[in-house]
Amino acid sequence: ATCGHGCKYGECMGPNKCKCFPGFTGKTCNQDLNECGLKPRPCEHRCMNTHGSYKCYCLNGYMLMPDGTCASSRSCAMANCQYGCEEVKGQVQCLCPSGGLQLGPNGRTCIDIDECSTGKAVCSYNRRCVNTFGSFYCKCQLGYELKYTSSRYNCVDVNECVTNTHRCNLHAECLNTQGSFQCKCKQGYRGSGFDCA
């Protein structure tokens, strides 16, 4: 089976037919499935969509059970947690619905961890890290675009000279470089390439 456009988060099952891994959707399995919008809803109280998955959390005064339901809890009600809580050996602890969030100094509210600045995020050399609330993603560096080549997704250099996105002077030649471009004034002209006289 060959899939011309590839299956980003899935596998090729037939001519241009992708079978997506759980949590992903789309013709090429490149879109995150928002499980929180499914019917029946996967969580009893509140749902937070994450990349390829989701997290359940409960309203204040309820405790998240292993099956995703919410059970009333007096001790949780007293803890006043932002995203529900759990009891560990009789101790009440507030929960954060994502690994990219951490409990704030008050022990009740969740604050974002910037994976891009802490170095927790690992993006390949030609990608840059973009922080989001509770997570992050890797985006192609400026001058590169995401393309499906040799059976996988890669960040490929944008040829600004071909796409006509350069700002070279009318009397200059455009020279493509990795991730960028250069402008050189044509014979008989002098200048920066952006200005030629």
From TrEMBL:
Keywords attached to this Swiss-Prot or TrEMBL record, sorted alphabetically, are: Calcium, Cell adhesion, Developmental protein, Differentiation, Disulfide bond, EGF-like domain, Extracellular matrix, Glycoprotein, Repeat, Secreted, Signal
Q: Which InterPro entries match?
A: EGF, EGF-like_Ca-bd_dom, EGF-type_Asp/Asn_hydroxyl_site, EGF_Ca-bd_CS, Growth_fac_rcpt_cys_sf, Nephronectin_domain, NOTCH1_EGF-like
| Leader sequence residues | none
Domain named EGF-like is located at 32-71, 112-150, 157-195
Location in the cell reads:
Secreted, Extracellular space, Extracellular matrix
Q: Which GO terms describe its molecular function?
A: calcium ion binding
The biological process GO terms on file are: cell adhesion; cell differentiation
Q: Which PANTHER family match?
A: EPIDERMAL GROWTH FACTOR-LIKE PROTEIN 6 (PTHR24050:SF24), PA14 DOMAIN-CONTAINING PROTEIN (PTHR24050)
What family classification does the UniProt entry report for this protein? Belongs to the nephronectin family.
- Name-wise, this protein is EGFL6 protein
Protein's organism: Regulus satrapa (Golden-crowned kinglet)
Task: State the taxonomy lineage.
Answer: Eukaryota, Metazoa, Chordata, Craniata, Vertebrata
